[in-house]
Design brief:
With about 350 residues, this protein is an alpha/beta fold. It folds into two domains: about 170 residues, Glycogen Phosphorylase B (Rossmann fold), CATH 3.40.50.2000; about 170 residues, 3-Layer(aba) Sandwich (Rossmann fold), CATH 3.40.50. It contains 13 helices and 13 strands. The strands form two sheets. Strands 3-2-1-4-5-6-7 form a seven-stranded parallel β-sheet, with helices on both faces. Strands 10-9-8-11-12-13 form a six-stranded parallel β-sheet, with helices on both faces. It is elongated, with a radius of gyration of 21 Å. It starts with a strand and ends in a 5-residue tail after the last helix.
């Protein structure tokens, strides 16, 4: 079988795509090709994983100026043409779109050529590229049941995450521990709020231990604030082994991108989500609300990241172990340990291979 994975831009697109590609190779000996753009994270991650990568030229359409949008529209036929040539040269049996800039042109090219297509959609509301092709794709692999209504044929597979997240042990009673992070670059609003609220948090939650991934920009300020307050804290610019830090935490304070949401479900960790308000299509808020509705998380809008709301939310949760346990159980019910396997099987069936 020969499969193309198209899309990228961010780690939220590329990392699950790599997991799917590796599962396709393991299960079916699939020859895999990635299609991306020159500015996406796929240029680093895909090449590092040893997969070939071809590039198309396509601009942005969502949350950009009218001038950029018009330029992208006029350039789309060329991008689709580039993708068609790549598909023809590679002789693909199936094309999997993972969202992001390159996904749209590649999926449209596949649809025009009659090649089976599979859309992977980790958010509650599909991203722009998947919304454009939703009515024509052969099938879709989704994380949330409500996402299925956007596609003709959808299966709930979940989002591939590292197996280590499923092995995060349930914390035994002890020093209450809060893990704060905002993606690899940190989240300035969350960092600033934690620094401002730190004295009151220490007062309301005696003995609290805080583990804080700040990113590069806010590291020095946060480190100084924790030292000045005499807090029991670990401050990191970046955390590589995130599953190990999940295992040490009673509660997470973080953004709500699709990959983070999937990792939290896999680890069965209670979370306070602060959705990034400028995320495309406001998908982080919708993701966070889905877990909140399931009883697995609390949503705190960025506009309410002040001392009263943040301190009250964190202190009330850490002071209620039974509620944390219920949230943990609710999160685990949303986990999908076989996501990569199930998505690979879907792709193989579309390509005409018995699974």
């Amino acid at each position: 079988m020969r499969a193309i994975l198209a899309g990228g831009g961010t780690g939220g697109h590329v990392i699950p795509a790599l997991a799917i590609a590796q599962e396709l190779q393991k299960l079916y000996g699939t020859e895999v090709l990635f299609i991306g753009t020159a500015r996406g994270l796929e240029n680093k991650l895909v090449r590092a994983a040893g997969f070939p990568l071809r590039l198309v030229e396509v601009g942005a359409l969502n949350r950009v100026s009218l001038a950029i949008r018009l330029k992208t529209y006029f350039g789309l036929p060329m991008a689709i043409g580039q993708a068609r040539r790549i598909l023809a040269e590679f002789n693909a049996d199936v094309v999997i779109g993972v969202g992001g800039y390159a996904s749209g042109p590649a999926m449209m090219a596949a649809i025009l050529k009659g090649i089976p297509t599979l859309a992977f959609e980790p958010n509650v509301v599909p991203g722009f590229a998947n919304r454009v092709v939703a009515r024509w794709v052969s099938a879709a692999a989704v994380h949330f049941e409500e996402t299925g209504k956007f596609f003709r044929h959808a299966e709930i597979t979940g989002v591939p995450v590292r197996q280590a997240f499923f092995q995060s042990a349930v914390r035994s009673p002890g020093q209450p521990t809060l893990l704060v992070f905002g993606g690899s670059q940190g989240a300035h609003a969350i960092n600033h709020a934690m620094i401002q609220c730190l004295p009151e948090i220490l007062k309301q939650v005696p003995g609290i231990r805080i583990i804080h991934q700040t990113g590069e920009r806010d590291y020095n300020d946060a480190e100084a604030a924790y030292q000045q307050a005499g807090a029991s804290a670990e401050v990191h610019k970046f955390i590589t082994d995130m599953p190990a830090f999940f295992a040490r935490a009673d509660l997470l304070l973080c953004r709500s991108g699709a990959s983070t949401v999937a990792e939290i479900a896999a680890a069965g960790k209670p979370a306070v989500f602060v959705p990034f308000p400028r995320a495309a299509d406001d998908h982080q808020r919708v993701n966070a609300q889905a877990l909140e509705s399931a009883g697995a998380a609390v949503v705190l809008e960025e506009t309410k990241l002040d001392e009263v709301w943040l301190v009250e939310t964190v202190s009330s949760l850490l002071g209620d172990p039974k509620r944390l346990a219920r949230m943990s159980e609710a999160a685990r019910k949303l986990a999908h340990p076989n996501a990569a396997h199930d998505i690979a099987e879907m792709a193989a069936r579309l390509a005409g291979i018995e699974t």
